[in-house]
TrEMBL record:
This is LysR family transcriptional regulator. Pfam families: HTH_1 (PF00126), LysR_substrate (PF03466). GO terms for molecular function: DNA-binding transcription factor activity; sequence-specific DNA binding. Keywords: DNA-binding, Transcription, Transcription regulation. PANTHER family: HTH-TYPE TRANSCRIPTIONAL ACTIVATOR TTDR-RELATED, HTH-TYPE TRANSCRIPTIONAL REGULATOR. Residues 5-62 form the HTH lysR-type domain. The keyword Transcription regulation applies. GO terms for biological process: DNA-templated transcription. Belongs to the LysR transcriptional regulatory family. The keyword Phosphoprotein does not apply. It comes from the Bacteria.
Amino acid sequence: MNNEPQVADLRVFCAVAQSGSFAAAAARLGTSPAHVSKRIGILEGQLGVRLFHRTTRRVQLSAEGETALDQARRVLDEMDALGELVGAGRRELTGPLRIATSVRLGREHVAPLLSAFGARHPALDLWLELVDRPVDLQAEGFDIDLRMGEPAEPRVIAHLIARNSRVLCAAPDYLARRGTPRTLADLAGHDCLLFRDRDRAWGNWRLLGPDGMASVRVTGRFGSNHADVIRQWCLDGHGVLLLAEWDMAPLLAEGRLVRVLPEWREPADLWALTTSRREQSAKVGACLDWLKTELRVSPGG
């Protein structure tokens, strides 16, 4: 009887480690929790160690599981690279491709592009995870992390996908009631809508204007980590908003919102982060090229 771990079981193991539960891993893999539990049990028997500490609510990696996870990812990376190398002659992209991005960016802009990309490459298995926090590419097993704003993390490779800015906006009735800010410092006396996108600073707006970069500390009664919520509050007249031009362009064109201090903006280009181990992947490169081509003109216009 073959007692060597199967590659499919290593993928199940990594999915459980990333999601923290058999049920979530099963949903991700398109199978049942019972099947996931069975395969983990078989893998633990083959390796002779307990990979997870199990509770009624979660599973947590054991010390041996932490060691095994790093090696399992290396094996899967090598298997994916082998598949790409063998498939290079037929120019077919195969295997899983896992991408993380923020909720609104993913839903409104990235998901439609991945739909078209997946149609062109039917042997790819695409996973798009929408999160409101920074991700660890290596630890969480993502191939690409798409985000607005230049990244500062060490040991990642950043690819510029598209130019973009965040702009200041407010509803006409708010400006009629409270007046229009004339200088950046005036924002400190206005109701500002506070939006936290992943690891973005809270309540400190740093913008680029005629004299370079400047910061202003803003406050307000309304805040959220969801762009749709904060944008609706802006439409309702609750304050001044700083949000991606991509998302504000239609409302500005319709006159439902008005630019405030139009000479000021916050650089928020779209970047794709990869790790050095993913850098030579044909499917990662093809996806990045696709996103760059399709997003060359900002979605907002």
